[in-house]
Amino acid sequence: MNSQTRLFMIDGPAGALEVAVDEPAGECKGVAVVAHPHPLFGGSLSNKVVQTLARACVQSGWHAVRFNFRGVGRSAGVHDNGQGELDDLLAVVQSQAPAGPLCLAGFSFGAFVTSHAVQRLYPVRDLHRVMLVGTAASRFTVAPVAPELHDRTLVVHGEVDDTVPLASVLDWARPQHLPVTVIPGVAHFFHGQLPLLKSLALRHLRG
Protein backbone atom coordinates (compact mmCIF):
# COMPACT_ATOMS: atom_id res chain seq x y z
CA MET A 1 0.00 0.00 0.00
CA ASN A 2 2.92 2.34 0.79
CA SER A 3 6.61 2.22 1.63
CA GLN A 4 5.76 1.62 5.29
CA THR A 5 3.72 -1.54 4.63
CA ARG A 6 5.14 -4.60 6.39
CA LEU A 7 4.85 -7.88 4.49
CA PHE A 8 5.42 -11.17 6.30
CA MET A 9 4.16 -14.74 6.67
CA ILE A 10 2.20 -16.33 9.51
CA ASP A 11 1.14 -19.90 10.18
CA GLY A 12 -2.30 -20.71 8.77
CA PRO A 13 -4.54 -23.77 8.82
CA ALA A 14 -3.40 -24.87 5.33
CA GLY A 15 0.17 -23.59 5.56
CA ALA A 16 1.76 -20.16 5.56
CA LEU A 17 -0.41 -17.07 4.95
CA GLU A 18 0.90 -13.84 3.44
CA VAL A 19 0.05 -10.76 5.52
CA ALA A 20 0.42 -7.01 4.95
CA VAL A 21 0.21 -4.57 7.85
CA ASP A 22 -0.03 -0.78 7.91
CA GLU A 23 0.22 1.21 11.13
CA PRO A 24 -1.60 4.45 11.99
CA ALA A 25 0.23 7.55 13.08
CA GLY A 26 -0.26 8.09 16.79
CA GLU A 27 -2.41 6.12 19.16
CA CYS A 28 -3.91 2.88 17.84
CA LYS A 29 -7.63 2.19 18.40
CA GLY A 30 -7.40 -1.52 17.63
CA VAL A 31 -6.88 -3.93 14.74
CA ALA A 32 -8.82 -3.95 11.46
CA VAL A 33 -8.67 -7.08 9.28
CA VAL A 34 -9.70 -6.64 5.63
CA ALA A 35 -10.57 -9.63 3.40
CA HIS A 36 -10.12 -9.63 -0.39
CA PRO A 37 -12.43 -10.69 -3.26
CA HIS A 38 -12.66 -14.09 -4.95
CA PRO A 39 -9.28 -15.84 -5.25
CA LEU A 40 -10.20 -17.54 -8.55
CA PHE A 41 -10.98 -14.22 -10.23
CA GLY A 42 -7.83 -12.28 -9.37
CA GLY A 43 -8.70 -11.28 -5.81
CA SER A 44 -5.75 -10.51 -3.55
CA LEU A 45 -4.63 -8.23 -0.74
CA SER A 46 -3.57 -5.66 -3.35
CA ASN A 47 -7.13 -5.20 -4.70
CA LYS A 48 -7.95 -1.49 -4.94
CA VAL A 49 -11.16 -1.70 -2.88
CA VAL A 50 -9.33 -3.66 -0.18
CA GLN A 51 -6.54 -1.07 -0.15
CA THR A 52 -9.11 1.73 0.03
CA LEU A 53 -10.76 0.18 3.09
CA ALA A 54 -7.35 -0.39 4.70
CA ARG A 55 -6.36 3.23 4.10
CA ALA A 56 -9.57 4.43 5.73
CA CYS A 57 -8.82 2.22 8.73
CA VAL A 58 -5.27 3.57 9.06
CA GLN A 59 -6.44 7.18 8.77
CA SER A 60 -9.02 6.47 11.48
CA GLY A 61 -6.36 5.19 13.87
CA TRP A 62 -6.63 1.46 13.23
CA HIS A 63 -3.80 -1.02 12.68
CA ALA A 64 -4.82 -2.37 9.22
CA VAL A 65 -4.17 -6.01 8.34
CA ARG A 66 -4.66 -7.37 4.83
CA PHE A 67 -3.86 -10.96 3.89
CA ASN A 68 -3.98 -13.39 1.00
CA PHE A 69 -6.37 -16.29 1.32
CA ARG A 70 -4.96 -19.79 0.77
CA GLY A 71 -3.59 -20.32 -2.73
CA VAL A 72 -3.19 -16.59 -3.45
CA GLY A 73 0.21 -14.90 -3.77
CA ARG A 74 2.63 -16.54 -1.36
CA SER A 75 -0.12 -18.13 0.75
CA ALA A 76 -0.07 -21.93 0.78
CA GLY A 77 -3.03 -24.20 0.05
CA VAL A 78 -5.84 -24.26 -2.50
CA HIS A 79 -9.18 -22.48 -2.81
CA ASP A 80 -11.87 -23.99 -0.54
CA ASN A 81 -15.13 -22.19 -1.51
CA GLY A 82 -15.23 -20.11 1.64
CA GLN A 83 -14.94 -22.72 4.37
CA GLY A 84 -11.15 -22.87 4.47
CA GLU A 85 -11.00 -19.15 3.80
CA LEU A 86 -13.05 -18.53 6.95
CA ASP A 87 -10.44 -20.55 8.84
CA ASP A 88 -7.74 -18.38 7.23
CA LEU A 89 -9.43 -15.18 8.35
CA LEU A 90 -9.91 -16.47 11.89
CA ALA A 91 -6.24 -17.52 11.98
CA VAL A 92 -5.20 -13.99 10.96
CA VAL A 93 -7.40 -12.52 13.71
CA GLN A 94 -5.92 -14.91 16.27
CA SER A 95 -2.38 -14.08 15.17
CA GLN A 96 -2.63 -10.32 14.69
CA ALA A 97 -5.53 -9.38 17.00
CA PRO A 98 -5.86 -11.99 19.77
CA ALA A 99 -7.49 -9.44 22.09
CA GLY A 100 -8.79 -5.88 22.14
CA PRO A 101 -11.03 -3.84 19.82
CA LEU A 102 -11.51 -5.41 16.41
CA CYS A 103 -12.82 -4.17 13.06
CA LEU A 104 -13.68 -6.69 10.34
CA ALA A 105 -14.09 -5.65 6.72
CA GLY A 106 -14.39 -7.45 3.40
CA PHE A 107 -15.08 -6.88 -0.28
CA SER A 108 -17.20 -9.20 -2.46
CA PHE A 109 -16.20 -12.82 -1.65
CA GLY A 110 -14.25 -11.32 1.26
CA ALA A 111 -17.45 -9.74 2.60
CA PHE A 112 -19.18 -13.14 2.49
CA VAL A 113 -16.30 -14.71 4.45
CA THR A 114 -16.23 -11.75 6.84
CA SER A 115 -19.95 -12.14 7.59
CA HIS A 116 -19.29 -15.67 8.85
CA ALA A 117 -16.29 -14.51 10.87
CA VAL A 118 -18.52 -11.89 12.51
CA GLN A 119 -21.06 -14.59 13.31
CA ARG A 120 -18.32 -16.81 14.76
CA LEU A 121 -16.58 -14.13 16.85
CA TYR A 122 -19.51 -12.13 18.24
CA PRO A 123 -20.16 -11.68 21.15
CA VAL A 124 -16.91 -13.25 22.37
CA ARG A 125 -14.87 -10.43 20.78
CA ASP A 126 -15.45 -6.69 20.92
CA LEU A 127 -16.43 -6.04 17.30
CA HIS A 128 -16.17 -2.28 17.19
CA ARG A 129 -16.96 -1.92 13.47
CA VAL A 130 -17.97 -4.15 10.53
CA MET A 131 -17.77 -3.12 6.85
CA LEU A 132 -19.24 -5.27 4.06
CA VAL A 133 -18.70 -3.92 0.55
CA GLY A 134 -20.06 -5.45 -2.66
CA THR A 135 -21.21 -8.41 -0.60
CA ALA A 136 -21.41 -11.58 -2.73
CA ALA A 137 -24.98 -12.43 -1.72
CA SER A 138 -25.96 -13.78 -5.14
CA ARG A 139 -23.25 -16.43 -5.15
CA PHE A 140 -22.86 -17.46 -1.53
CA THR A 141 -24.93 -17.78 1.64
CA VAL A 142 -24.00 -14.65 3.56
CA ALA A 143 -24.42 -14.89 7.33
CA PRO A 144 -26.92 -12.54 9.00
CA VAL A 145 -25.62 -9.73 11.17
CA ALA A 146 -26.66 -9.83 14.82
CA PRO A 147 -29.17 -7.04 15.59
CA GLU A 148 -26.85 -5.69 18.29
CA LEU A 149 -24.23 -5.03 15.59
CA HIS A 150 -26.46 -3.21 13.10
CA ASP A 151 -25.42 0.27 14.18
CA ARG A 152 -21.76 -0.81 13.99
CA THR A 153 -22.14 -2.28 10.50
CA LEU A 154 -21.72 -0.52 7.16
CA VAL A 155 -23.07 -2.33 4.08
CA VAL A 156 -22.20 -0.59 0.79
CA HIS A 157 -23.24 -1.68 -2.70
CA GLY A 158 -23.18 -0.21 -6.19
CA GLU A 159 -26.53 0.42 -7.85
CA VAL A 160 -25.45 -1.11 -11.17
CA ASP A 161 -23.24 -3.90 -9.83
CA ASP A 162 -23.14 -6.45 -12.68
CA THR A 163 -21.24 -9.07 -10.63
CA VAL A 164 -23.50 -9.12 -7.57
CA PRO A 165 -26.93 -7.64 -8.35
CA LEU A 166 -28.12 -5.10 -5.79
CA ALA A 167 -31.39 -7.04 -5.50
CA SER A 168 -29.58 -10.02 -3.99
CA VAL A 169 -28.04 -7.89 -1.27
CA LEU A 170 -31.38 -6.27 -0.50
CA ASP A 171 -32.98 -9.73 -0.32
CA TRP A 172 -30.33 -10.70 2.26
CA ALA A 173 -30.64 -7.45 4.24
CA ARG A 174 -34.45 -7.08 4.15
CA PRO A 175 -35.41 -9.79 6.68
CA GLN A 176 -32.82 -8.36 9.07
CA HIS A 177 -33.94 -4.73 8.60
CA LEU A 178 -30.25 -4.06 8.00
CA PRO A 179 -29.59 -0.76 6.18
CA VAL A 180 -27.72 -0.83 2.87
CA THR A 181 -25.94 2.24 1.51
CA VAL A 182 -26.38 2.30 -2.29
CA ILE A 183 -24.07 4.37 -4.48
CA PRO A 184 -25.98 5.37 -7.64
CA GLY A 185 -24.45 4.50 -10.99
CA VAL A 186 -21.60 2.46 -9.50
CA ALA A 187 -20.57 -1.06 -10.56
CA HIS A 188 -18.87 -3.82 -8.59
CA PHE A 189 -15.32 -2.47 -8.42
CA PHE A 190 -16.30 1.14 -7.62
CA HIS A 191 -14.34 2.51 -10.59
CA GLY A 192 -14.10 6.27 -10.26
CA GLN A 193 -15.79 6.22 -6.87
CA LEU A 194 -13.10 4.85 -4.57
CA PRO A 195 -12.69 8.26 -2.88
CA LEU A 196 -16.42 8.23 -2.08
CA LEU A 197 -16.16 4.68 -0.72
CA LYS A 198 -13.24 5.79 1.43
CA SER A 199 -15.20 8.76 2.78
CA LEU A 200 -18.12 6.49 3.70
CA ALA A 201 -15.72 4.13 5.48
CA LEU A 202 -14.05 7.02 7.33
CA ARG A 203 -17.42 8.35 8.48
CA HIS A 204 -18.42 4.93 9.73
CA LEU A 205 -15.13 4.26 11.51
CA ARG A 206 -15.15 7.65 13.22
CA GLY A 207 -18.86 7.63 14.08
Notes on the protein architecture:
This protein has 207 residues and is α/β, with parallel strands linked by helices. Helices cover 29% and strands 24% of the residues. It has helices at 48-59, 83-96, 109-121, 166-173, 194-206, and strands at residues 6-12, 15-22, 30-35, 62-67, 102-107, 127-133, 153-158, 181-183. The longest helix is centred in the middle third of the chain and has 14 residues, at 83-96.
Task: Provide mean pLDDT, rounded.
Answer: 97
Please report which band the strand proportion falls in: under 5%, 5-15%, 15-25%, 25-35%, 35-45% or over 45%. 15-25%
Shape: globular
Low-confidence region ranges: none
Give the neighbour order of strands across the main sheet: 1-2-4-3-5-6-7-8
**What's the helical proportion of residues?**
25-40%
- The tally of domains stands at 1
Q: And the CATH topology?
A: Rossmann fold
CATH superfamily label:
Alpha/Beta hydrolase fold, catalytic domain
Number of strands: 8
Order of helices and strands: EEEHEHEHEEHEH
Biggest sheet descriptor = 8 strands, mixed
The gyration radius over C-alpha positions equals 15 Å
Please give the CATH class: Alpha Beta
Query: What is the structural class?
Result: alpha/beta
Q: What is the annotated CATH architecture?
A: 3-Layer(aba) Sandwich
Number of helices: 5
Distance between the termini: 25 Å
